[in-house]
Design a protein that fits this description.
Largest sheet: 6 strands, parallel
Shape: flat
Structural class: alpha/beta
Number of helices: 19
Strand content: 5-15%
Helix content: 40-55%
Order of helices and strands: HEEHEEHEHEHHEHEHEHHHHHHHHHHH
Distance between the termini: 52 Å
Number of strands: 9
């Protein structure tokens, strides 16, 4: 069944599918046990039809599939006291740690292990798509794994505001306060919307915060800015948001983006070669969400090309195609031609030597690699002893400028290019 689902619905594929425990019942209903409430939510909402179809194809009978999870009395609830399902991909095991998010991740782990004791409140802030929601949901899942009876209220700030306005209008403030103050953990996303001209709402949240804090109940908040930068937020709330730990998440660096892509591909069972990972990481530098979208798109295209993922497929996914020369020229060809032309050794080009007889051929190599290959500046620098992308950019500009002002250098580059493309 798993093979059928993975072949017919590659975007649904998850590595934790292998941990499912199926049983064929006498009445033709296959009951499948999953390991968490988040997995149950994912399977019920996205996998029901795919698994049922696979079961019927495998058995040749009109079987059906039902997913199960043995839950405790606790759970994660929304503002209407309805159980909500989290994304099983948003677990700590799937979070890629880097310099941009190390503090936020460590703090989240601590809160998941010791809610109400480690950092209270935990305030995570950063731009859209950098992993705030991932950490919030990972905390919830870790607490429920350790305390199945824990009651967690998870909602957006906008929901809190609307619930408060409705409670004031209907006179149900006692019920409102009970709902928000009798939980083991309160998680509010986008708390920055609490700012502005909302004096009564801010006051109500202030008292809710105090009640939970004094009862040693965990509070987790996220925003797109630190507490001190939330517009028109009362000073007493700013002070309380800073009581625990304020952790910032920044944009991932190139190495972290590579690791994120590798993790996302692994989770979906996609084999992405290193050159594809390098290419995508150089194309997307904004946020994790776009990296995940790129993996999904490449996986979808691969399903139409016998499942093979290569650099050309990745370029197609980004709407790019290489010229015939770019498809032909490789780094090794550039090294061979330049080292022979200038009578230098490859080891010298990749060394730290700065003598002009070495430095200029090295710059020529970088210039040609930028012109005739689709590698990014970071990737090109990696072929020269791990040099920074700014060094590569400087080399490209230097050679380009010299060609315009020095006819001898222009002639050298023309001859070298002739050997590359012949």
């Amino acid at each position: 069944m798993l093979q059928q689902v993975r072949t017919g619905h590659p975007s649904l594929n998850r590595t934790w599918f292998d941990q499912m425990n199926p049983r064929l019942m006498p009445n033709g209903v296959i009951h499948i046990q999953v390991s968490s409430a988040a997995q149950l939510h994912f399977c019920q909402n996205q996998c029901q039809q795919a698994f049922t179809t696979a079961a019927q194809q495998i058995t040749g009978r009109l079987t059906s599939v039902i997913f199960h999870f043995e839950a405790g009395t606790g759970g994660i609830f929304n503002d209407a006291d309805q159980p909500i399902g989290l994304n099983p991909d948003y677990a700590f095991e799937n979070f890629v740690i880097g310099p941009c998010n190390r503090l936020a991740h460590a703090a989240s782990i601590a809160v998941g292990e010791q809610p109400g004791k480690a950092y209270n409140p935990l305030f995570i802030h950063g731009d859209v798509g950098l992993g705030k929601t991932h950490l919030l949901q990972a905390i919830c899942q870790r607490i429920l794994d350790r305390q199945p009876d824990a009651r967690i209220l998870y909602l957006t700030c906008d929901s809190f505001i609307n619930q408060f306005i409705n409670a004031v209008g209907s006179g149900d403030m006692n019920q409102f306060r009970y709902r928000y103050r009798h939980v083991d953990m309160l998680v509010i996303d986008d708390i920055h919307f609490l700012g502005g001209d909302k004096a009564r709402t801010q006051e109500e949240f202030f008292h809710t915060f105090n009640t939970l804090y004094q009862g040693h109940k965990q509070i987790v908040l996220s925003a797109d800015c630190p507490p001190s930068e939330i517009p028109e937020l009362e000073e007493r709330l700013v002070s309380r948001f800073n009581w625990g730990l304020v952790a910032r998440i920044d944009k991932p660096c190139y190495e972290t983006r590579m690791a994120i892509l590798q993790k996302k591909a692994q989770m979906r069972g996609v084999n992405m070669p290193d050159d594809v990972l390098c290419y995508v990481a150089s194309k997307i530098d904004s946020n994790t969400r776009e990296l995940e979208g790129a993996v999904t798109k490449i996986q979808g295209l691969a399903s139409l090309h016998d499942g093979k993922v290569d650099l050309e497929l990745a370029k197609t996914a980004f709407g790019e195609t290489a010229t015939p020369e770019q498809r032909r020229v490789t780094f090794q060809q550039i090294f061979d031609v330049v080292t022979k032309y200038y009578n230098v050794r490859l080891s010298d080009l990749q060394s730290k030597k700065r003598h002009k007889s070495i430095a200029f051929p090295r710059q020529v190599c970088m210039f040609l690699a930028r012109k005739y290959t689709r590698y990014s500046l970071e990737e090109i620098g990696g072929h020269f002893g791990g040099r920074d992308h700014t060094t590569v950019l400087h080399a490209v500009r230097t050679v380009d400028g010299d060609m315009k002002t020095d006819s001898e250098i222009a002639n050298q580059i023309t001859q070298i290019e002739g050997h590359l493309t012949m």
